[in-house]
Amino acid sequence: MRVVVATGVFDIIHPGHVLYLEEARKLGDKLVVIVARDEHVRMRKGRQPIPEEQRLLVVKSLKPVDDAVLGDLDDLMKPIVDIKPDVIALGYDQDIDEKELEKISGLGFKPKVVRVRKHWTGGLNSTRKILKMIRGE
Length: 137
Prior knowledge:
Rossmann fold; 35% helix; alpha/beta; 5 strands
C-alpha cells in the first residue's frame, strides 16, 4: 500500500484545499493528512479562527482523506516519521523546503516529495481572501 501524507492548516476549507487533497490522494492508495496545531498557526499567521480539533474533524470528513492527525507540538517532523509515508504531497503555496524533508531519509525510509500544482484560480481560492470578504475589505 502506497501511503501519501499531505499537510496544512485547513482553517476555512475552500475548493483549493479540496483540489489539493484530491490530487494528493491520486499519488497513492491511502491519504493521511497532518493538520497544523493552533500554536504553530498563530506563530506563522498571527491568527487562528478555527480551533485545531474542529479543523481535524472537518478534514477527516473530506472524501479524499483516509485519516487525519494533528501535528506534533514540539517536532513538526514527528508525525511524518511516525507515518513513514511513501509520498509527501506539498501544496503549491506551502513554503516547506523539499531539501528539509530529505533529512528524514536517515531514519530508514525516503519518501518521494511531490509539489501539487495550483488548480483553483477563480473566486475565493484562499483563506486570506475569504477572511477579507467576510470583513468587507
